[in-house]
């Protein structure tokens, strides 16, 4: 692995299998627990510039969450147009991440990758002004054009929902998505996977309160590495956002395997992204600033490509020019989704599967839960 990958760490999935049964699944993460310490004592502007370099996988979402946290800590009220531009940038990054994942790992078709990357680069440059601390509104946001361009790029990849709806009820398909869907169901349709853990609900300000309390405690570093609520684990991301989408509901009614349903959830998200971007309207940011005796603290929350991303910052100082970072903590989607007692473990332990299909089953489920770091599988008998 390169230097960035080494800095990010990786996840190892140890699977114990015997006599046709997955006996145990253990997750081991080498993700550095205290990497945010490099931001402490830094001037705020310097720390904010470092965030996307440290967390390069979803740099836009990380930047937006860091800006939200800093702005709420400083009591800065952001204009709705700024929030709108940032939301669009996060959605654009989600399209890039999921489109790349689908092309490279599922369809073996990279023809659309170049167009998708060029589109994302163009949108990023166009809306770059919004990724500054308390920025001025720079230009008109051409949402209709941006979303139409994305739809034209994604259509060859994911097709239309009506095409896949027909396929779910027995029609033949010669599209790459349809063929992959059929292959997943034929290969794993007889395997009974368990359900995952509870969905992480962070829709209102009140939903953040218990997370804020954990990040403000003395155990903040441990919580960031393995977040749960008194032993209850949660999942976030593509499956949580799309588990009740039209395609997934139809697939469930047609009796599709849990693995295949998760693949449908990814497809459904990509199909819905252009319309979701068009329907977004300017509004004020979710108020995430801390209340109570601790001053100069703030939180930022972004629903990124892989799920809910939360930043919490504590500042020493009362203005951009004179404040430094006193404390900084991040809870990333991968820590929710690859918790040692989380979804992957819950879905796989106790599952009956023959040895020939074991590795592929675990691999495909990891891809669908989707970590933001490198991973490996080790199988022991």
UniProtKB/TrEMBL annotation:
It holds the Pfam family NiFeSe_Hases. Gene3D superfamilies: Cytochrome-c3 Hydrogenase, chain B. GO terms for molecular function: nickel cation binding. InterPro entries: Ni-dep_hyd_lsu, NiFe-Hase_large, NiFe/NiFeSe_hydrgnase_LSU. Its cofactor is Fe cation; Ni(2+). Fe cation binds at residue 58. Keywords: Iron, Metal-binding, Nickel. It comes from the Bacteria. Ni(2+) binds at residue 58. The keyword Metal-binding applies. This is Nickel-dependent hydrogenase large subunit. It comes from Pontibacterium sinense. The lineage of its organism: Bacteria, Pseudomonadati, Pseudomonadota, Gammaproteobacteria, Oceanospirillales.
């Amino acid at each position: 692995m390169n230097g960035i990958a080494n800095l990010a760490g990786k996840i190892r999935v140890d699977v114990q299998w015997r006599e046709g049964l997955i006996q145990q699944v253990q997750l081991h993460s080498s993700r550095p627990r205290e990497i945010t310490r490099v931001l402490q004592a830094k001037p705020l502007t310097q720390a904010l510039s470092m965030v996307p370099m440290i967390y390069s996988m979803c740099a836009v979402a990380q930047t937006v969450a860091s800006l939200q946290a800093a702005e709420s800590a400083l009591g800065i009220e952001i204009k709705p147009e700024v929030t709108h531009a940032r939301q669009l940038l996060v959605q654009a990054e989600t399209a890039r991440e999921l489109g790349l994942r689908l092309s490279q790992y599922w369809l073996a078709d990279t023809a659309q990758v170049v167009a998708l990357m060029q589109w994302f680069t163009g949108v990023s440059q166009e809306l770059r002004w919004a990724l500054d601390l308390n920025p001025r509104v720079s230009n008109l946001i051409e949402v209709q054009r941006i979303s139409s361009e994305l739809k034209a790029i994604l259509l060859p990849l994911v097709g239309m929902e009506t095409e896949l709806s027909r396929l779910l009820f027995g029609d033949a398909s010669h599209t790459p998505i349809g063929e992959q869907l059929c292959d997943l169901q034929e290969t794993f349709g007889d395997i009974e996977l368990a359900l995952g853990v509870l969905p992480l609900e962070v829709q209102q300000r009140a939903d953040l309160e218990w997370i804020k309390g954990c990040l403000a405690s003395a155990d903040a570093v441990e919580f960031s590495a393995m977040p749960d609520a008194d032993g209850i684990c949660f999942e976030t991301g593509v499956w949580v956002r799309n588990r009740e989408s039209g395609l997934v509901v139809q697939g469930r009614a047609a009796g599709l395997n849990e693995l295949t349903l998760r693949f449908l959830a990814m497809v459904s998200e990509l199909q819905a992204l252009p319309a979701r971007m068009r329907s977004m309207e300017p509004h004020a940011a979710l108020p995430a600033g801390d209340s109570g005796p601790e001053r100069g603290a703030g939180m930022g929350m972004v629903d990124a490509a892989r799920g809910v991303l939360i930043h919490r910052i504590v500042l020493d100082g009362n203005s951009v020019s004179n404040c430094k970072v006193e404390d900084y903590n991040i809870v990333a989607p991968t820590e929710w989704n690859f918790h040692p007692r989380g979804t992957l473990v819950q879905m796989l332990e106790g599952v009956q599967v023959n040895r020939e299909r074991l590795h592929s089953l675990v691999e495909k489920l990891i891809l669908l839960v989707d970590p933001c770091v490198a991973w490996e599988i080790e199988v022991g008998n």
